[in-house]
Amino acid sequence: MAAQLLDGRAVSSAMLAELRAEVVDFGRVHGRRPVLATVLVGEDPASHTYVRMKVNRCGRVGIQSRRFDLDVGIDTKELCRVIGDLSADPEVDGILLQHPVPGHIDERAAFEAIDPDKDVDGVTRTSFAAMAFTEEGFASATPGGILALLDAYDVPLAGRHAVVIGRSAILGKPMGMLLLGRDATVTYCHSRTTNLREHIERADIVVAAVGVPGLVKGEWVKPGAVVVDAGYADNRGDVDFDTAVERASFITPVPGGVGPMTIATLLAQTVRGAQRRAAASVAPLQPLSSR
Ligand code: NAP
Q: Where is the Tetrahydrofolate dehydrogenase/cyclohydrolase NAD(P)-binding domain positioned along the sequence (predicted)?
């Protein structure tokens, strides 16, 4: 029997509708809209498309976006200055630096220029630590979106064996940490893993986050496993969907699975960031005796 689709479009649409109502409430109380600053370096067409989609979705829920498209020739120091200014700007609630930046830029340094309180895409070391220690904080948007998608379908995680393929700082590693935080037993695979097939054959949950189209073959998937495909290269996912759909219990389509959830999570965290900052800026009441 074919797997049930984990429909990221439908789940994210419901999330965006709820966010829209929260943004209206926020405006009523604080007299302004949450603000997301997007920073894009260079002319990569895919990155331009992703930023355009994020800005469009902001408009749909009422978040105000401020777009900073920077010349490909910018250096790390200048990029960090731009991001530092946005971090210090009291009118900005969240900052997104579109990944990847051109190779001559130190992306980690640029990420770390984001004030952790505005790190609504979950890319700083502070956010990483919060995910690792299961503390309050911002999740990396894609892993956070994947978790929200699994939760929307009540996929049980505790005690299940999850295999995460990929170990990047913004996707694979935090994905494993979030699953571990939900009591899954986690195995990481990467380019030096031997016998990838054997690991996948034992997995109750497979999260592919690689960027190699069709890497995971359907016949490797354990019958009844849950398959999440975060990969996106050449307009294709990392999983051979047509064969995997026949064995899995749940599976994400590509596109329409993980991508929309990433954007919805970014926006949800922008609204949460704005709410937190607004709450923090309200001066605490003084005790009567000190007035
Ligand atoms: P990345 O930084 O290039 O990391 C890729 C990971 O895959 C690395 O850990 C690499 O291992 C591993 N890998 C490469 N070849 C492998 C192989 N043959 N077998 C097993 N593992 C292999 O990429 P990323 O930023 O994490 O993104 C991964 C994919 O997700 C890309 O297709 C990207 O477009 C997509 N993505 C989608 C969204 C979304 O919203 N849908 C968001 C972000 C990214 P090593 O560490 O050993 O090199």
A: 140-277
Dihedral angle, C-alpha 67, 52, 235, 139, nearest 10 °: 60
Ligand 1 nearest atom to the CA of residue 215, by list position:
18
Q: Beta strands of 166-204 (E only): which ranges?
A: 185-189
210 lines ligand 1 (CB under 6 A): yes
Q: What mean pLDDT comes out for the span 73-95?
A: 98
Only one residue has tokens 């649409």, namely 13
Model confidence at 291, pLDDT cuts 50, 70, 90, reads very low
The residues facing 111 across adjacent strands are none
Report the nearest atom of ligand 1 relative to the CA of 262. Answer: 40
Pick the closest to residue 82 from 63, 101, 56 (CA basis). 101
173 assigned to active site: no
Active-site entry in 7, 115, 117, 121? 121
- Cβ-based neighbours of 121, under 8 Å, separated by 6 or more: 94, 95, 96, 97, 138, 140, 141, 266, 269
At residue 165, the 3 state secondary structure works out as: strand
**239 CA distance to ligand 1 middle (Å):** 13
Both tokens of 209, joined, read 């986050």
C-alpha closest to that of 31 among 283, 263, 282 = 282
CB of 255 within 8 A of CB of 49?
no
pLDDT tens-place string over residues 1-32:
699 999 999 999 999 999 999 999 999 999 99
**Per-residue pLDDT tens digits for 100-153:** 999 999 999 999 999 999 999 999 999 999 999 999 999 999 999 999 999 999
- Answer whether the bond into residue 156 is a cis peptide, omega within 30°: no
Q: Which residues contact 216 (CB under 8 A, 6 or more apart)?
A: 165, 200, 206, 208, 227, 229, 238, 239, 240, 244
